[in-house]
Amino acid sequence: MKLLGIFCIMSACAGTGIYKAYFIKNQVKQYQKLLAFLEDCAIYIRYQSLPLQELFAILSENPDYENFNFLKKLKFSPEKSLEILWHDSIQESNLPLQAKQILQNLGHELGKTDTQGQLAVLELYQAQMQTACEQSFACCEKKSKLYQSLGWLGGAMLAILFI
To answer: What gap in Å lies between CA 58 and CA 52, rounded to an integer?
Structure first.
């Protein structure tokens, strides 16, 4: 019975390390999808000159962005401005903090200029998102193996202490 408990503790520690490593890898994937999202926004604005309401409606139906709950929460109404709606939906999202800040700033700029101005704004924020993605990838490279190792070693240490 004691060995079963020790095995459970060791497995829990290892699982925690593996989960944390998965969480970091998932953030990199989110940044990559956000980059694709910004690129799609630029494409739709450049070639179809879509208003933002239609643009976000089309992108929210895209299966690549089904995990972006902020797109689904964008319910346009005449009572609230796009900037406030964007801000509220981004705040409630499950995106990484740096991605939220970049998208918040984008929401303050998007839709306030002509097509060329919006494309320039999107290009600026794509560059910022690319930098954040690269930083997240570097962090993932360093920390994912570390978290897994710490989980396994912590579990082994507790197993030895309980034996």
So the answer is: 10
